[in-house]
Amino acid sequence: MSQFLQLSSIASATTYYVSSTGDDTEDGLSLSTPWRTITKVNSEFASFLPGDRILFKRGDLFTGTLNISRSGSSGNHIIISAYETGEAPIINGFNTITGWTSEGSGIYSTSVLCESRPNMVTINGINTPIGRYPDSTWLSIDSHFTNTSITDEELPASPDWDGAEVVIRKNEWVIDRSIITDHTNHTITYKSGSIKDAIDGYGYFIQNDLKTLTTFGEWYYNSLTHVFYMYFGTTVPDEYVVNVSSIDDLIYFPESNYITIDGLSFIGANKNAIHMINNDYITIQNCSINFSGFDGIYGEVGGASPYCVVSNNNINHSNNTGISLGLNFTNAKVTNNRVRNSGVIAGMGGGWVTCYSRLSGNTYTRR
């Protein structure tokens, strides 16, 4: 009887199509009646059944977060993939900036609505760090008080860095980011970051402040006013393509099991391209993941999440980690992935310097 039920379930599986030229008022059930948006897919997801397939048209771009709210079953995954031929369909989190206003002194601004403070910005396809002081070197800590303040006798009392972010190297593998609550004379007081104290003689710098914008490409985002600033110097913004990550996660699925993601491209996640929480039997394969503000694939620490498969993916330019699976992701199989350029910009990661686990069959390149 159980075998009959399983075969019946497979036979009744449905394929849904999504195209950038589709129509969300259609049924999505054929190549001639595809849906158009991720929003439509999300609104229908609760009705999907084990074995159903949601296919995005190759060569098309779709902006938004795909919220997976339904589970497949053993041997009968819900599959999210692509149809037709050509380049993989792109799930996009970038906002291409237009409508610049000159603020003087080589700085331009524009309004950008983001789900949280941007952590990935590109200029002509190049990962571009937030503005910082000093521009490239590190300042040195003379003394510190627990995990709340540092003192540097060479730090000028002006300009005042209240509200900016201090980036502190705590040891050889931790670079911490904390909001500055007070800058008085040569001392910076900050909100406690990681549990580790600062170390005298180690380095720090300051970022996330309009006053840091002195070099081409440096940027700052005011989260209260939603205004994005960038320094162009003697050039003008119209000569460049500037992309700002405005969507935190591109695929988000808490507590959904037996899901396969196959053959998609992800670009411009502000936090994580794929964000898993408490998931069993997830397969992520043959995907391209580029320019993630934090992690390309992130498995959050939570409930038991066994038997995740991450295979044959190309992951590039993650500001924190390419693949990060919590200890609860037991019996995971991570093979034949190529991970490049993870955590290469100090102060843009989540705190811990990227470390590589040399899993068999994976390739890691840090440039």
Key terms:
367 residues, mainly beta, Pectate Lyase C-like, 2 domains, seven-stranded parallel sheet, 2 helices
Task: Summarize the topology.
Layout: H1 2-11, E1 15-18, H2 38-44, E2 53-57, E3 61-63, E4 66-67, E5 78-83, E6 90-92, E7 94-96, E8 101-104, E9 107-111, E10 121-123, E11 126-127, E12 132-133, E13 139-140, E14 143-145, E15 149-151, E16 165-169, E17 175-184, E18 187-190, E19 203-207, E20 219-222, E21 227-231, E22 242-245, E23 247-254, E24 259-262, E25 265-267, E26 269-277, E27 282-285, E28 288-292, E29 295-300, E30 309-311, E31 314-318, E32 321-325, E33 333-335, E34 338-342, E35 363-365
Parallel strand pairs: 1-2, 2-5, 3-6, 4-23, 5-24, 6-25, 23-26, 24-27, 25-28, 26-29, 27-30, 28-31, 29-32, 30-33, 31-34, 34-35
Antiparallel strand pairs: 7-22, 8-9, 9-21, 10-11, 10-22, 12-19, 13-19, 14-15, 15-18, 16-17, 16-19, 17-18, 20-21
Describe this structure in words.
The chain has 2 domains: 2-93 and 246-365, 3 Solenoid (Pectate Lyase C-like); 98-244, no CATH class. The termini are far apart. It is mainly β. The chain is 5% helix and 41% strand. The protein contains 2 helices and 35 strands. The chain has helices spanning 2-11, 38-44; strands at residues 15-18, 53-57, 61-63, 66-67, 78-83, 90-92, 94-96, 101-104, 107-111, 121-123, 126-127, 132-133, 139-140, 143-145, 149-151, 165-169, 175-184, 187-190, 203-207, 219-222, 227-231, 242-245, 247-254, 259-262, 265-267, 269-277, 282-285, 288-292, 295-300, 309-311, 314-318, 321-325, 333-335, 338-342, 363-365.
